[in-house]
Amino acid sequence: MTLPSRPEFNTHACVPVPDLAQRGPCGCALHARRRLGGALIGGGALAALGGWGTAALAQQADPAQANAAPDSECQRSTFTQVVSADQVEQAAGQQYRQMLQQASQQNALAPADNAQLQRLRFIARRIIPFTAGCNPRSAQWRWDVNLIGSKELNAFCMPGGKICFYNGILAQLRLDDDEVAIIMGHEVAHALLEHARARMGKTMATRGMIELGSALLGLGGAGRSLADMGGQLLTLRFSRDDESQADALGLVLAAKAGYRPAAGVSLWQKMLSANKGAPPQWLSTHPSGDSRIRDIQGRLPRVDPLYAQADKPDRRFGPPGA
User: Fold this and answer.
1) Which of 4, 33, 61, 169 lies 20 to 30 Å from 26 when distance is taken between CA atoms?
2) Tell me, what's the pLDDT at 229?
């Protein structure tokens, strides 16, 4: 008897990124205008309130962080204390399962014997042992790694250790293992540093301060709208800092796992080439590619010794179709 064949892995599916995943900036003109409008109006709201709370909320990137002690790369924002970690991780797990179900319905969830999925899980097994030293919660996370069949250039690690790559970033950028490890280290760093949880805490704190100021200034029902817009402005600024912090920790994780940190330079050169026409840095939630390359180059003296001392992987993979 002939058994039915398994459906072919669909690499052209449309699978939305969960809300609690770290999302890349959208380059479309409509969203760029919305970010600009929110920033301008939000800035006016904060100015009307005399800048209340901005000193307490501001987190400036430290240029010396690249050469600081390892613990400095693992420092989490105090805003994480505003929101329960358990609740954030539970919500992320629910969104993650929904995403996997959506992918499965489109035959876009890579099977266990997929070579690229095996590659991702091999690299993750090398990185994960170094996570508990940065965030003790990660020792209890139920880590999971999956590959989604989509042309999108994306990858993320959700709260609780849910790692996902989209096939497009592997196939279109022709990533080698070191470049994949740089991306994975960066995304895992977002989860370890609890950036999604901190972002939620910042939003709640910002909205509360602006609504309080609105009440005192007699702005009435406009207070909530101002709070939302002011929160957008602050979240925009913090997101850039989050990305730089994740870059720094991600390089450390990749280097300790035995992957070449200088691959971050070639990775972002490929990203620059693939993302021509992206919005300028001041409109984006992420640092520009040129800025990122310079920052990575500045961090290499800090992480290259970690790489030199690390055990190197005993297995190497190639990009899709290699």
Assistant:
1) 61
2) 43
Residue-wise pLDDT for 204-224, tens only, equals 766 655 454 445 555 455 545
CA-nearest of 172, 161, 195 to 23 is 195
Query: Any residues with CB less than 8 A from the CB of 304 and at least 6 apart, and which?
Result: 255, 261, 262
Task: Sheet with 144-148: list strands edge to edge.
Answer: 144-148, 162-166, 155-158
HEC-encoded secondary structure of 4-47: CCCCCCCCCCCCCCCCCCCCCCCCCHHHHHHHHHHHHHHHHHHH
The DSSP secondary structure of 58-113, one letter per residue, reads: -----GGGGGS-GGGGGPPPGGGGGS-HHHHHHHHHHHHHHHHHHHHHTT-B--TT
DSSP per-residue string spanning 221-263: THHHHHHHHHHHHHHHHHHHHHHHHHHHHHHHHHHHTT--TTH
Q: Are 175 and 155 in contact (CB under 8 A)?
A: no
- For position 202, what pLDDT does the model report? 77
Choose between 81 and 119: higher pLDDT: 119
pTM over 0.85: no
What are phi and psi for residue 74, nearest 5 degrees? -110, 10
